[in-house]
Amino acid sequence: MATPDSDSLLAEQLLRFTRRVHRIQKRHIEQCGLGITPAQSRLLRTLAHWSSPPRMADLAERLEVVPRAVTTLVDGLEASGKVRRVPDPTNRRVIRIELTDDGRKALRELRGARRSAAAEILAPLSDDQRVVLGGLLDTLVDGAPERHCGRGPKR
């Protein structure tokens, strides 16, 4: 059974690991030479999953950020030719965001950078350890019953 001290240690390890992952991914993205930030990379990946161009509000919701943050990201990506604002065909007051050919090309390069970063991060693990880690991460991503004030699951 986990103790409060071991939970604190795990929390600190997770935070340190998360910072390491971000540092390594940022370095690999920078090595691509695309001039894209990790946040812009995330927006491009998110855009790629839509079958039709989303509204900025849709992007903000999916990215779990405030709309103003999406505006800033889109401004930068639009200036570099990776995305463009397009009018909604049914409501002229609505603006949608779509990937350009340059944006799709950047996404392909970014995927390679992410794979390289993942290979570096996972290099110390054996195949069996990677399987275990994958299962643990699935559990953490899917979540557990909600806990309140450290007293166990909410009933």
Provide the succession of SSEs.
Answer: HHHHEEHH
User: Unreliable runs, pLDDT <50, ≥5 residues?
Assistant: 150-155
For the largest beta-sheet, the strand count, sense and barrel status come to:
2 strands, antiparallel
Tell me how many strands there are: 2
Q: Give the strand content.
A: 5-15%
| Radius of gyration from CA coordinates | 19 Å
Describe this structure in words.
This protein is mostly helical. Helix content is 64%, strand content 6%. It is built from six helices and two strands; from the N terminus they run ααααββαα. It has a two-stranded antiparallel ribbon. A hairpin with a 7-residue loop joins β1 and β2 (95-99). α1 crosses α5 (101-122), α2 (38-48) packs across α5 (101-122) and α3 crosses α4 (67-79). The chain is globular, with a radius of gyration of 19 Å. The chain starts with a helix and ends in a 13-residue tail after the last helix. Mean pLDDT is 89; it is low at 150-155.
Set down the secondary structure blueprint.
Elements: H1 4-32, H2 38-48, H3 56-63, H4 67-79, E1 83-87, E2 95-99, H5 101-122, H6 127-142
Antiparallel strand pairs: 1-2
Helix pairs in contact: 1-5, 2-5, 3-4
In short:
The protein has helices at residues 4-32, 38-48, 56-63, 67-79, 101-122, 127-142; strands at residues 83-87, 95-99.
Properties at a glance:
single chain; 155 residues; mainly alpha; 2 strands; 64% helix; 6% strand; globular; disordered C terminus
